[in-house]
Amino acid sequence: MKMGVAGKEVRLGIIGLGGRGRGQMKTLLSMPDVQVTCVCDLYEDRVQAGIDICREMKGNEPVGTKRYREVLTRDDVDAVVVMTSWTTHLHIATEALRAGKRVAMEVGGAASVDECWQLVRTSEETGIPVMLLENCCYNREEMALLNMVKQGLFGELVHCAGGYQHDLREEIGNGDLARHYRQDNFLNRNGDLYPTHELGPIAKMLNINRGNRMLTLTSTASKARGLSAWLKERRGDSELSKAHVTQGDIVTTVIKCAHGETIVLTHDCTLPRPYSRGLRVQGTKGIYMEDNQSIFLEGKTQPKFDEWLEKNRAELEKNHKGENMDEVIERLRNSAPDWLHEWEKFDGYLKEYEHPLWKVYQEFGLRGGHGGMDYLVLRAFVESVQNQTEPPIDVYDAASWLVITCLSEQSVAMGGAPVAIPDFTDGNWICREAEEPNAYGLSKVFWEKFED
Amino acid sequence: MKMGVAGKEVRLGIIGLGGRGRGQMKTLLSMPDVQVTCVCDLYEDRVQAGIDICREMKGNEPVGTKRYREVLTRDDVDAVVVMTSWTTHLHIATEALRAGKRVAMEVGGAASVDECWQLVRTSEETGIPVMLLENCCYNREEMALLNMVKQGLFGELVHCAGGYQHDLREEIGNGDLARHYRQDNFLNRNGDLYPTHELGPIAKMLNINRGNRMLTLTSTASKARGLSAWLKERRGDSELSKAHVTQGDIVTTVIKCAHGETIVLTHDCTLPRPYSRGLRVQGTKGIYMEDNQSIFLEGKTQPKFDEWLEKNRAELEKNHKGENMDEVIERLRNSAPDWLHEWEKFDGYLKEYEHPLWKVYQEFGLRGGHGGMDYLVLRAFVESVQNQTEPPIDVYDAASWLVITCLSEQSVAMGGAPVAIPDFTDGNWICREAEEPNAYGLSKVFWEKFED
């Protein structure tokens, strides 16, 4: 396996060394041009685990600390990665900017609108960028779909849907009470706690903050039954089984965009189900659905039409004698009635419209967690630090995606009342340059090195 | 084919003889105990077509009229079936009650809250029932799922979703301008114009108006692009191509119920797509999805677990030496972590939990349109007339399902503001008897006759 990708060395400080933090740190340490010089967690055992991982993987002994402010002030830290509990990401990231450090943070959701503004204002004042590590933006299917959207295969986009649909009862319910931020959130809040899967990829498709923006949302929560039923059944002996769960099992959030598109988000984490982000992408020319792994593109995917054509070809030729049959068939195909519409499997399209990044990534060899997407999102951050460029998922993306959580809580609390989504760009979304359709955040350094 | 099912003869007046009206009339006329004595439509050619059908199928010559009031006052009409344009159903049905006739009406959506109240009050004052002909309640999959819900397979229901997702661009766009009610609605309204597929079957599963009720909704419409793009492309020469389309392509409606369940409805009729009602049924024990024709039931459908077990059985037996292995495996299966959750195809469940009505219907032989469900819903009406019983989809169902349309329009118009759904039962929903889990509206007469 080629591992030759390397730029200028980046020295990172890692804040937050729970399961996710350690996993992501390992992926970062697998990069030859990354060093971790400082590790931080509130728990000493985790700090030690972080030091041990660095020693094993890189042979160096990073400084360990329980105080994140120590990480932010160190000269041997070029940039910081925040992977703490959800409600601390924005505060720590804002402080990192004030301390002059580039910062990346794991996903989650904001607890107040103001903490999002604080991040935006601090980034603007200091001129230092922030990156949100929304890995699903880098997943293979989502990137191929982005590619298809940019090439106009769906026509004008009208509607998208997606969600975080992941049975977390066991993770929440078996967790260690005192150290489990997910548990804390599910026992106290009620809203879309984890909106950025699948809002991130959808926002990129809809050019949010770059020619479009999210205007309003409504959010409705179902009753909360799944987690408490599970706790009673499996952990009847524990204090936790008596806990009152506030988080509704299904939270449905409907977002309206400036150019008229709608986005439906589903938060579904406390009922038994297979994992799905349930992505749906729909425009004037077709529709993609993750849940049946299928696509329908007008005039393109019509297997039923072909079947019909085979049966009726002779008669058709008789009726259209003297005409150009290819033209006749093409005309018919494009105007095929709705009962000839049929889903086609997405596999073929995935290969045909593979994102350029994923083409080279597959040659390079997938690595890191979650089917390879973790590596890509982390690499994009590392390269933005090396090259001192804007990260592909920037402070406006971060603020507008994360703010959905607290706005969703507000709407749920007010019986589904619509809530305005702030324009964190102060009107600049109208003129901000649309992203390169095929760059999507990894600089050429990565691929040139690989190509060498 | 056995056709021996017959009770007391029912003489029907048919109001509305468009494509749907004529189709449903043919299904009614296929029943040996049904006569059509009067046919009515605003257009003379349709009246004549109706008379011709009766002559061909039954050998009688019904009275033909352009005035629906004439149908309502005739002594040779026992009951009336209203299959006119959407915005006239409720008015004509209410007048039928005032004239002392039992009435069934095709689906659609209400244009005002008050016309729903008028229907309810008139039915209460006259003591005459109304039936809504929501055929999807009688579809095979929906009835099997109702059966499963009533048997508790999904645990406590928490969330349902569904919609009318049907590419109607061709039907609307190629229609005759002056005579096309769907066209009129899409060019002037904006909301969920056609909510009862799939709200009807969902409402039955959630015991709406019988122990539960719908409290509020929010509704959000996307921009309207699909139909106008289609008209420009295909009918550029016509006046219609210049028409302004008001109806958003995708309207998402989120309903909250008294017992905390949420229902998400999608109206999706002007973008290219295969047909789907997108039913989703979700509870504390599992989930069904129409779109992948799959189901997951905790502790029941875990094919991945079986795979895992096969690979790890030897080690498991070593670790649990001396224990009852069946018990060990059962315990493990029930607590399998979420990554072992996997969809299972619904086919097997459909057969295992086939609704009793569908078992006998399949022996009897499916007939009528839409995969057989039209026949069942019409038969339920005919039998409720014969036996002078309450129809299975009654005036409270009709009012509360149809009112969703105008409430959705209100919410869309007010930027997604929540709107209260009236309690048409005046509080009686709390104590109204829950339906028999397996009867669902067809009287025994039908099956006894068949069994003879």
Secondary-structure blueprint:
The structure is a homodimer of 452-residue chains.
Chain A (H helix, E strand, L loop, with lengths): L9 E6 L3 H11 L4 E7 L3 H15 L4 E3 L2 H5 L6 E4 L6 H10 L3 E4 L7 H14 L3 E3 L7 H11 L6 E9 L3 H5 L7 H8 L7 H10 L8 E8 L4 H9 L15 E8 L4 E7 L11 E4 L2 E4 L4 E4 L5 H17 L5 H10 L9 E2 L1 H6 L3 H9 L8 H14 L8 H19 L5 E2 L23 H8 L1
Parallel strand pairs in A: 1-2, 1-4, 2-3, 4-5, 5-6, 7-10
Antiparallel strand pairs in A: 7-11, 8-9, 8-15, 9-10, 11-12, 12-13, 13-14
What would you say this structure looks like, in words?
Two copies of one chain form a homodimer. Chain A has 452 residues and is of the alpha/beta class. In chain A, 40% of the residues lie in helices and 17% in strands. Chain A is built from 17 helices and 15 strands. In chain A, strands 14-13-12-11-7-10-9-8-15 form a nine-stranded mixed beta sheet. In chain A, strands 3-2-1-4-5-6 form a six-stranded parallel beta sheet, sandwiched between helices. In chain A, a hairpin with a 4-residue loop joins strand 12 (286-289) and strand 13 (294-297). In chain A, helix 1 (19-29) runs parallel beside helix 2 (44-58), helix 4 (89-98) packs parallel to helix 5 (113-126) and helix 5 (113-126) packs antiparallel against helix 16. Chain A is globular, with a radius of gyration of 24 Å. The two termini of chain A are 14 Å apart. The interface between A and B is large, with 61 and 61 residues.
Q: What is the C-alpha radius of gyration of chain A, as a whole number of Å?
A: 24 Å
Helix content of chain A: 40-55%
Count of helix runs of chain A: 17
Strand numbers in spatial order across the main sheet of chain A: 14-13-12-11-7-10-9-8-15
Largest sheet composition of chain A: 9 strands, mixed
Q: Of all protein chain pairs, which has the greatest interface, and how many residues does each chain bring to it?
A: A-B, 61 and 61 residues
